[in-house]
Amino acid sequence: MKIDFSALEEEVQRILDTPEYDDHPARDALGRLWEMNLNQWNRVERITRLSDSYQDMMMKREKSLSARFDRHLRQLEKITRISDHYQRVLKQVNSELEQTALIDPLTELPNRRMMMKRLSTEFERDERDKVYCVAMVDVDHFKLVNDEYGHQVGDDVLVALGKAMPAVIAQEGYIGRWGGEEFLVLLPGKSRQQAQQLMEAMRLAIAELELDFDGKRLTTSVSIGLSEHRQGDTIDSLLTRADDALYAAKSLGRNQVTVD
Ligand SMILES: Nc1nc2c(ncn2[C@@H]2O[C@H](COP(=O)(O)OP(=O)(O)OP(=O)(O)O)[C@@H](O)[C@H]2O)c(=O)[nH]1
């Protein structure tokens, strides 16, 4: 049977409020039962309120946690984006630095370090049947250019030669600034005869070059010492022979190619 509690409560309330029942033997017990009932309801209400506010608190907490999580996630994404960007910039700066460390700033040709790197790579390859020549190129009487036209014109001459010589060599070899007014040419796969022909063409091209700097016209020439790789050669021995050949070219009157 279903009990209608509100009707029952109303009825009990009415009995307790009726003065004729004040002396009824069950009046006191009913009064206390009613009191207990009220207390129980109050407790239930308190517990319900507590549970509601606890649920409320948990929901708020969950919301704030999820908001914090989202905020952290966005920050993390931002940091990742920044870090990716910096890594790209760093990579570029590194490669630019590496480039500048290997390029001669005046002529923009590979510098001595780069040439040595290149030579080392070549020498690491299998020695058998290696066909390889190197040529040391030195500008003749370059001191006179500086003395007569000034250091700036001297620089301009080096820049002009740094453009003219690679144009002759093209894909046949590899040229770099060795230092001062000296250049080094690497000629992989070239026999002594082929290298000599190429260096002769380069010497001639330079001798015929007419340079004009602010109306100052001048010509110049280069001496070239060539050496061909021999069995058992080291980088040092190959370069020393090219140097010796260059010395010979200078001694023989300059503007010529000599082979050691
Ligand atoms: N303008 C300029 N001069 C340089 C540079 N590097 C070296 N020189 C000059 O090159 C000159 C080389 O002089 P030397 O070693 O006597 O040789 P040279 O006058 O060319 O005579 P030979 O080599 O015997 O034909 C020196 O005066 C150096 O100062 C440079 O980067 N710019």
Descriptive notes:
Pfam families: GGDEF. Residues 130-260 form the GGDEF domain. It comes from Marinomonas arenicola. Keywords: Nucleotidyltransferase, Transferase. The chain is an alpha+beta fold and 260 residues long. The protein folds into 2 domains: 5-65; 112-259, Reverse transcriptase/Diguanylate cyclase domain (Alpha-Beta Plaits). The chain is built from 7 helices and 7 strands; from the N terminus they run H-H-H-E-H-H-E-E-H-E-E-E-H-E. Strands 2-3-1-6-7 form a 5-stranded mixed beta sheet, sandwiched between helices. Strands 4-5 form a two-stranded antiparallel ribbon. The termini are far apart. The model has no long low-confidence stretch (mean pLDDT 93). Bound molecules: guanosine-5'-triphosphate. Guanosine-5'-triphosphate (GTP) binds at residues 106, 138-143, 146, 151, 154-155, 158, 180-181, 250, 254.
